[in-house]
Recover the amino acids of this structure.
């Protein structure tokens, strides 16, 4: 089927309302649009450059967690959560009580992504894996009563205060088994010659249209993007985090998804997606280059300090926890409070960390140059 000729689906009568039933997608896809071809080639080039760039970063796993935190913060903000990077990397006890639910949502995302990526090392991408992701995502937060990890058995809707005023009503539950089976087969169908980036774009649209969970569909749908690309070998490491650009263009993101359903404009959505991948990949490369430069600078500074081995251990800890208390640092690097305090004072004097709290008791120290890389 040509992307230009795609008919998104149909409306079906479901009780007192009409729900949208999307067309199945597990088949060949071609296109004639030159703009789409150029956008596809650009996205492939930039994605490959990002993956290559990531391979040159020593101790890459040290830095991936902050990429995941950044993605979690941006993806959650799209859904209305207000936790920023500075707050997301705090320990829970340091977060104000009224902000902890948002903090938990972001950190659930981080945990869900990490655990699901480990599962992808031994299992293929599947609806079952996404159900596990969803279950972890919804634990202990808003929406935990909405069947975490279970494909919905009742109708949901998008926008509006009730189904009568909804902006969009996804397919009724009885359609979901066939739709989700078709989506999963599309991921793994080796008999069709559809490039992985195009499959990924179509898969994200289809997942969001099916809306298989009662809550959390947007976040799981955006997690599907790196999961799919890693599972197909387009990325060797989880280094593409697209939610920041989707958040920056939130209205256009929603509009492009909606236009597929309302105007059959799949070309417009795929173009938007490919452009987002290109921009995200270029930004990711720049961040890895800045991390590489910072790491080299830290190596030089640490080598000139007394007890360089312990200082090196402290720096490695700060890459994983860039906002930290002295007690927490002491526990993680295995020294007493006085030794950790001397280290922090030395780091302060060399402008490696800055105190970000007004009180001395349980003061928090920020690895600011590192944090700034992910906040930009």
């Amino acid at each position: 089927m040509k992307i230009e000729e795609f008919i998104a689906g149909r409306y079906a009568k479901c009780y007192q309302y009409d729900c949208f039933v999307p067309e199945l997608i597990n088949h060949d896809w071609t296109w004639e649009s030159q703009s789409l071809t150029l956008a596809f080639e650009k996205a492939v080039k930039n994605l490959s450059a990002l993956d290559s760039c990531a391979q040159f970063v020593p101790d890459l796993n040290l830095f991936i967690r902050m990429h995941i935190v950044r993605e979690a913060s941006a993806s959650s903000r799209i859904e209305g959560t207000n936790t920023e990077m500075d707050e997301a990397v705090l320990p829970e006890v340091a977060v104000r009580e009224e902000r902890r639910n948002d903090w938990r949502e972001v950190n659930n995302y981080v945990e869900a992504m990490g655990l699901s990526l480990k599962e992808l090392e031994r299992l293929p991408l599947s609806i079952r894996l996404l159900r596990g992701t969803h279950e972890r995502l919804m634990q202990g937060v808003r929406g935990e009563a909405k069947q975490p990890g279970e494909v919905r058995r009742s109708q949901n809707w998008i926008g509006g205060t009730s189904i009568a005023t909804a902006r969009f009503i996804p397919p009724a539950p009885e359609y979901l088994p066939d739709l989700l089976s078709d989506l999963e087969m599309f991921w793994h169908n080796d008999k069709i010659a559809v490039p992985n980036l195009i499959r990924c774009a179509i898969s994200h649209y289809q997942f969001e249209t099916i809306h298989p969970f009662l809550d959390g569909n947007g976040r799981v749908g955006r997690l599907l993007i790196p999961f799919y690309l890693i599972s197909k070998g387009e990325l060797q490491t989880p280094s593409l985090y697209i939610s920041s650009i989707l958040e920056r263009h939130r209205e256009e993101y929603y509009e492009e998804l909606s236009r597929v359903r309302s105007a059959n404009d799949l070309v417009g959505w795929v173009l938007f997606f490919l452009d987002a991948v290109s921009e995200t990949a270029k930004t990711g490369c720049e961040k890895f280059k800045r991390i590489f430069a910072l790491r080299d600078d830290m190596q030089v500074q640490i080598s000139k300090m007394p007890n360089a081995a312990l200082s090196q251990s402290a720096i490695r800890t700060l890459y994983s926890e860039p906002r930290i208390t002295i007690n927490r640092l002491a526990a993680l690097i295995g020294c007493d409070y006085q030794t950790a305090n001397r280290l922090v004072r030395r780091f302060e004097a060399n402008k490696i960390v800055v105190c970000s709290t007004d009180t001395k008791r349980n003061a928090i120290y920020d690895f600011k140059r590192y944090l700034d890389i992910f906040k930009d």
